[in-house]
Amino acid sequence: MPKLGMEPIRRAALVKATIDEIGAMGNLDVTVRDIAKRAGMSSALAHHYFGGKDQIFLAAMRHTLTIFGAEVRAALAGAKGHQARVAAIVQASFASTNFQPKVIAAWLNFYVLAQTSADAQRLLRIYQRRLHSNLVHDLRPLLGGRAQGAATRIGSLIDGQYLRQGLLRDAGGTADATTLVLALLELELSRGAE
Amino acid sequence: MPKLGMEPIRRAALVKATIDEIGAMGNLDVTVRDIAKRAGMSSALAHHYFGGKDQIFLAAMRHTLTIFGAEVRAALAGAKGHQARVAAIVQASFASTNFQPKVIAAWLNFYVLAQTSADAQRLLRIYQRRLHSNLVHDLRPLLGGRAQGAATRIGSLIDGQYLRQGLLRDAGGTADATTLVLALLELELSRGAE
Amino acid sequence: MPKLGMEPIRRAALVKATIDEIGAMGNLDVTVRDIAKRAGMSSALAHHYFGGKDQIFLAAMRHTLTIFGAEVRAALAGAKGHQARVAAIVQASFASTNFQPKVIAAWLNFYVLAQTSADAQRLLRIYQRRLHSNLVHDLRPLLGGRAQGAATRIGSLIDGQYLRQGLLRDAGGTADATTLVLALLELELSRGAE
Amino acid sequence: MPKLGMEPIRRAALVKATIDEIGAMGNLDVTVRDIAKRAGMSSALAHHYFGGKDQIFLAAMRHTLTIFGAEVRAALAGAKGHQARVAAIVQASFASTNFQPKVIAAWLNFYVLAQTSADAQRLLRIYQRRLHSNLVHDLRPLLGGRAQGAATRIGSLIDGQYLRQGLLRDAGGTADATTLVLALLELELSRGAE
DNA sequence: AATGAATGAGGATTCATTCAT
DNA sequence: GATGAATGAATCCTCATTCAT
After folding, report:
1. pLDDT for C179-189, tens place per residue?
2. Mind giving me the DSSP string for C29-84?
3. For C150-158, what is the mean pLDDT?
4. pLDDT attached to residue B175
């Protein structure tokens, strides 16, 4: 049943399969064959569309980051006021789309990939910078000169929660993680501007 | 003349070589051969002493965690007062022994290993539990019911900083990381007990 | 509107592309995809027209041999006298059309192909037999019984020069090669008939 | 039955198997697996000892050239007088050790390899240069200024005979080839020095 | 006429692991 | 105690070829 315009479909299927497979395996020791099988095609086709394993990984990473960014933007769109906007970012970070075990596993492994792949590192840095500037944008009116430090703390605590959630792997961590980080936000706000 | 007591020497050399090699490679895609070569022996001997690659990794992880624990204990021994003790834990976490790029890389990879290996997961949980209870022990007198949450935040922020430092890989992050977490401590203290 | 009579055009384009590609790669490890791309079409179409890779090679070989034959015939048409005709054959052998690096590379690889493919072997033998009989035809009046040996020597020396030129790959070997073989011709003639 | 000092034995076996396999297949499309199987070992071991397929080919080529060189030296040792020495070189070139179908096939393929591999090209040029200088050394006293051209003709005719013999693949070509080239030698000598 | 889609087969290479010495 | 020898299994990747449109 060969049709035209399969490329985007196949690519999307592979990206999804990659994240699923990494989530299932727990590490990047995932074979192209298994990814392709999960996506319902031969490994040769996967290579045809992506060129190689690295690029499959990168595409999966880009996808994850894109989803994350969209989630944050959507949350920001519905939030009024600086504090509500910061809270929205935090909540979006732990939204169910991102905070699934398999996505967390993928995320963690992307950090590992970034140790080796310059492209992966660049992607991750872009994500961090964007998160940081988003946070600073709304923290500055509230905290003045303390905004930078507070943004770093909040962003870094989010990362820390991801790391720990990846380790524990029990469901329902979303609420806890959100509460924890929002408590930090409140703490920062209670200290006020400087 | 067969040398006596070579076993501990060989094992220690392999553990060190493992961490160095992971640090150099940036991931767990490290060959037993390369580890053994770095340790000055044949890969067959590495197998002889450890039984397999997994156990070599586990031993390296145990060693890293042991070092970390010792560092914390030493820091605690010289600290007077609850606040000083918490600060000591934070400082020890970022002490130069642990916060080298190669150790951070190893640490990050142990998190990945924990996704697969039950033993690795257990080790990592022990470390987290110990860190948490150490923090709570000294935070409770200061923060009362808020001690648990504060300890989780501090511990998790430490982890987050490791993750980010692993990404950035620039030297001299020790001071920044310490300052950042100590600022959180101060924030928690400023809110007082509940 | 489907174009009519595309077949000969496509086939010619593929044959040319094959020789170019072999010349560019230096060996027969040439993919159908690359040949087709060079000829401006899909690899599926190449298969459609030729049936398979082997037949593409064979067609390229046939083409090369045809060109060579035409070159020789043209040279012979303009030569008067036995000696001049032999010289014409030699000169045609090293004419710029044949003696380009890419054609030499293809030629050499056809010899390799002949080790495997009976068809290729047959083609090459036809070429050799024709060259030999052309030479003998004009050498016999000059050398009598020595014509056979002389023809073999001259033909074989031409082949040897191709082989060596393929190795050296520097331009401008045409003159040298021609001179060398003509010197042999003169030598044979100086000995006279037997 | 693992013993010590297997390396040279294994390498020799692989080199021999490579030539045999190329001879059997007729081209360089020979798998490491097949070479290794022919040499009685796993392909992994072949890689262990040689590092890669290219190096296996190169070693086989070096071996062939070494054999050839030894054959020539031996022949020269027993020859008295300039003409006899040149004849000895020619005879050695077609000695049964070199002029077997499988060796000729390998030889031809090395020429193809030289189109791609700089190392292979270097080896082949060394062989040609040595052959040429050997010929010139004994032709100069006989032919003076004509020695260079004569040496090129003789060397190139030897190559041409190899090429043709590779194509024909019938046994017993040794005598014919030798006779043919010696006839050229005689021709050159009959013309005398210049 | 022409091609994107798709795959099975195969190949080089790597590696953890075992074994005899 | 120590290692060279050896391999089976696995992985990424390529390619000729087929097929439906």
Report:
1. 999 999 999 99
2. ---HHHHHHHTTS-HHHHHHHHSSHHHHHHHHHHHHHHHHHHHHHHHHHT--SHHH
3. 96
4. 87
Q: Which chain B residue shows the shortest CA-CA distance from A102?
A: B115
Q: Whole-number mean pLDDT of chain C?
A: 92
Residue type, B17: A
For the entire predicted model, the pTM comes to: 0.92
Q: Which D residues, 133 through 172, put their C-beta within 8 Å of a C-beta on chain C? A: 149, 152-153, 155-161, 163-164, 166-167
- Residues C167, D114: contact at Cβ < 8 Å? yes
Q: Which amino acid is at C118?
A: A
Helices (H) and strands (E) in chain D, counts: 9, 0
Q: No. of H helices and E strands in chain B?
A: 9, 0
Residue numbers 41-80 of D with CB closer than 7 A to any atom of strand E: 43-44, 47-48, 51-54
- Of B122, B58, B131, which is closest to residue B93 (Cα–Cα)? B131
Rounded CA separation C12/C18 (Å):
10
The per-residue pLDDT for D173 is: 79
Q: How many angstroms separate the CA of D42 from the C1' of F8?
A: 9
Q: What percent of chain C has pLDDT over 70?
A: 96
D2 CB neighbours strand E below 7 A: yes
Give the gyration radius of chain D's Cα atoms: 19
The Cβ-side half-sphere exposure at B155, using a 13 Å CA radius, reads 22
Considering chain D, what percentage of its residues have pLDDT values greater than 90? 86
CB B146 within 8 A of CB B84: no
Of C25, C183, C172, which is closest to residue C105 (Cα–Cα)? C25
Q: Measured between alpha carbons, how far is residue D4 from residues C28, C70, D9, D10, D44 in Å?
A: 41, 63, 10, 11, 18
Cα gap C84→A71, rounded to integer Å: 86
Can you list the residues of chain A whose pLDDT is less than 70? 1-2, 169-172
Residues ≥6 apart with Cβ < 8 Å to A79: A85, A87, A88
Closest CA to B108 of B54, B52, B164: B164
- Structure letter (DSSP) for residue B3: P
pLDDT of residue C4: 59
> Which nucleotide is closest, CA of C42 to its C1'?
E3
Structure token digits, residue B163: 């993750």
Token pair recorded at residue B44: 């067959």
Q: Which residue do the tokens 């600022």 mark?
A: B183
Q: What mean pLDDT comes out for the span C11-15?
A: 97
Q: What is the DSSP string of B9-62?
A: HHHHHHHHHHHHHHHHHSSS---HHHHHHHTTS-HHHHHHHHSSHHHHHHHHHH
Is the Cβ atom of B44 within 7 Å of strand F at any atom?
yes
The owner of tokens 């019984």 is C145
Condensed to tens digits (0 to 9), the pLDDT of residues B64-88 reads 999 999 999 999 999 999 999 999 9
Cα–Cα distance measured from residue A137 to residue A129, given in angstroms and rounded to the nearest whole number: 12
- Cβ distance A61 to A123 under 8 Å? yes
d(CA B108, CA B128) in angstroms, rounded, equals 14
- Helix, strand, or coil (residue C29): coil
Mean pLDDT of C74-93: 95
| pLDDT on residue D3 | 67
Do C188 and D187 make contact, defined as CB atoms within 8 angstroms?
yes
CA distance readout (Å), D184 to B91, C128, C150, C164, D179: 90, 20, 9, 19, 9
Q: Mean pLDDT for chain B?
A: 93
**Rounded distance, CA B21 to CA B39, Å?**
10
Answer whether D28's CB lies under 8 Å from D112's CB. Answer: yes
Alpha carbons B158 and A153: distance in angstroms, whole number: 10
Say if CB B5 and CB B49 are below 8 A apart: no
- Alpha carbon dihedral D73, D76, D82, D83, in 10-degree steps, equals -110
CA D73 to chain centre: 13
